[in-house]
Amino acid sequence: MKSLADLKAIRDRMQQQMNLRDTEGDHIRVVVGMATCGIAAGARPVLTAFLEEIEKRELKNVAVTQTGCIGVCRLEPIVEVYVPGQEKVTYVKMTPDKVPTVVSEHLVNGRVVSDYTIGAAE
Amino acid sequence: MIRSHILVCTGTGCSSSDSPKIIAEFEEQLSLQGMENEAKVIKTGCFGLCALGPIVTVYPEGACYVHVTPDDVEEIVSEHIVKGRIVKRLLHRGEVDAAPAASLSDTNFYKHQRRIALRNCGVINPENIEEYIAVDGYSALGRILTEQVPPQKVINDIKASGLRGRGGAGFSTGMKWQFTHDAVSEDGIKYVCCNADEGDPGAFMDRSVLEGDPFSVIEAMTIAGYAVGSHQGYIYVRAEYPIAVQRLNHAIAQAKEYGLLGENIFESGFSFDLELRLGAGAFVCGEETALLTSIEGHRGEPRTRPPFPPNKGLGQRPTLLNNVETYANITWILNNGPEAFASVGTEKSKGTKVFALGGKITNTGLVEIPMGTTLRTVVEDIGGGVPGGKKFKAAQTGGPSGGCIPASLIDTPIDYESLGAIGSMMGSGGLIVMDEDNCMVDIAKFFLEFVVDESCGKCSPCRIGTKRLLELLTKITEGNGEPEDLDTIEELCNHIKASALCGLGQTAPNPVLSTLRHFREEYEAHVYEKRCPAGVCKALIQYIVDPSKCKGCTRCARGCPTGAISGAVRAPHIINQSKCIKCGACMDHCRFDAIYKQ
Ligand SMILES: Cc1cc2nc3c(=O)[nH]c(=O)nc-3n(C[C@H](O)[C@H](O)[C@H](O)COP(=O)(O)O)c2cc1C
Ligand code: SF4
């Protein structure tokens, strides 16, 4: 290490990983429904797709977690996205194919993908 | 992508209750359940809630699991990591009904705390310098060296922060840096040393910092080296702290590997090297002149001051010596500004203080509080009060050099001045809570025994005086005290204080004087009535069977190790006082509350 830039490079890279431990931070949360119904409907590959896509884009402030049954089992796999300061958005009948669009549109550009939301399905 | 971090405490407390096994089990379960690419196990230092250890915190939820055993690991992985369901039965009780993401900072234990010195303990992996860098580690050193901030400016910041030494005496850290900076060394050599001897019984603040955040001390010492003009540092750490020693060695090696220690740091031309020196666990080696003598390779005996170490220390060179916790505050001050630090605490005691809470208290562990917090907040809110419905009697701060704070003064703010005013002292951070079952004469005797053992013997007031003092106290606790003994004790205490060579002897009478001041009636009960009100001093108590309650079940007689209890079945029993060794086993055995002490 020779310069502040070197130090910053390490800091930025590590912060991406360590943001995970900041429960009070203002990061986006992606919550995948992983109860029996969700898993049966294919939630696992959806979760994996989110992880891969987020890593690929080096997004720093996104935490991916799971939750139990969200309650509308017929629409599983369900994914909820919480952006700080905004209403939660619920995506339904998710598939790994839909994930890159949600990541690039919603998580990166802040545009809700209305076609996939619960509103569109109802 | 790693989406979950599993933080396992590997401080000394949790390590001795199986955290290494828990870590191994997590690694095995993660791979068995195919989660090794999604969750990562991270070793951390102490979280502070030692009474509930081993502690495991799972992020991003921040779920804090307590009393975890290796058998619980499979469930945590299969439920929490795989399915996202928090294992409620293992949560910290304060959290059970809260939302899963409720953080530990909402619990009473943490709510009143302010973590500055311990900011990274339990948060980062102490064996990974990159995690330290991620939490702004080395940005203070980097900025100072690359911008060539004048050393005087660094010293001014430390002065402005109001930081005072956390090793006990509370001397202004900025002034100490200034003296060492100003001192002239004939051959240009100066030293920066760190006191990690921590010999107070019951204290483990410094150990926890070294185990949980060694880089913050190393970075601070490097900055101190730059500020005072030194290129060589030593950390004097007791050999009884094997985990701290191993983490420090690891951290020093890693800092060197990253070019953050050694030659030409940040290409600035400034070089600084650091080595460990292991102490053999003598309390007196925590005294600054004894410590430096010990580093020089001699027997650790104090010498007279002046000259003070900033002028003539290690090898007669100007030497800066600070305590571990003092150093742990430095980069926080430089990164957040001296004003931010000075805004915490009281007028003359700035910042926070770490305490090792022990004794009769529910949440034994490590706490960091803003200066000026009352003892009541520490005992009742943070500490969760005295267990078993017993009454709080007193707290001892400052270990064998300090004194007690009686229950009547529980609203005393904890800062250097207020504690000094009531005859106690801040000390290095041991805080032992006592309840109605503790005898204050016995407590004073306990600390004195420690001092008599640890006195180096160089000067007679301490070597002989403390021994005589102990004999007097022993006489009182054995029921042979005479009225004039109390005056003799007081007089002897004052002589020792005034004439001992080093701080050990000078402060050794404090526990006696302060218990005498606040609990004189307890001493008098021992002397005049031959009675120990707390029922501790064996020579002064008797175990007695209450015939109206005794059912004659014979349990006590069967449990007595000396066969001192006799009595027919279903007839009241009797304890033969000449055979009784006052072990109390009978009282534990009796199911009818028929045995009492008096
Ligand atoms: C008997 C005795 C034991 C001491 N033990 C320690 C100790 O274990 N750790 C410590 O930091 N200071 C200890 N001190 C205080 C040191 O002499 C010294 O004041 C301190 O290390 C200075 O650092 P500070 O200004 O950062 O507090 C002890 C003093 C005495 C008299
Ligand atoms: S006061 Fe005690 S420990 Fe200190 S020099 Fe004298 S004998 Fe040694």
Q: Can you give a write-up of this model?
A:
Chain A is α+β, with helices and mostly antiparallel strands and 122 residues long. Chain A has one domain: 3-Layer(aba) Sandwich (Glutaredoxin). Helix content of chain A is 39%, strand content 16%. Chain A contains five helices and four strands, in the order H-E-H-H-E-E-E-H-H. Chain A has helices at residues 4-18, 36-40, 43-56, 99-108, 118-121, and strands spanning 28-33, 62-67, 79-82, 89-91. Chain A has a four-stranded mixed beta sheet, with helices on one face. In chain A, strand 3 and strand 4 form a beta hairpin. Chain A is elongated, with a radius of gyration of 16 Å. Chain B has 598 residues and is of the alpha/beta class. Chain B folds into five domains: 4-111, Glutaredoxin; 129-340, Rossmann fold, CATH 3.40.50; 352-435, Ubiquitin-like (UB roll); 440-528, Up-down Bundle (de novo design (two linked rop proteins)), CATH 1.20.1440; 542-597, Alpha-Beta Plaits. Chain B is 39% helix and 14% strand. In chain B, the strands form five sheets. Chain B has a five-stranded mixed beta sheet. In chain B, strands 2-1-3-4 form a four-stranded mixed beta sheet, with helices on one face. Chain B has a four-stranded parallel beta sheet with strand order 7-6-5-8, with helices on both faces. In chain B, helix 10 crosses helix 13 (324-336). Chain B is globular, with a radius of gyration of 27 Å. Mean pLDDT of chain B is 93; it is low at 95-102. Chain A binds chain B through residues 1-4, 7, 10-11, 13-15, 17-18, 20-21, 23-24, 29, 32, 34-35, 39, 51-52, 54-55, 63-68, and chain B through 1-5, 7, 38, 59-62, 82-85, 101, 103, 105, 123-124, 130-131, 133-136, 138-139, 142-143, 146, 258-260, 266-267. The site of iron/sulfur cluster has 14 residues of chain B, from helix 18 and helix 20.
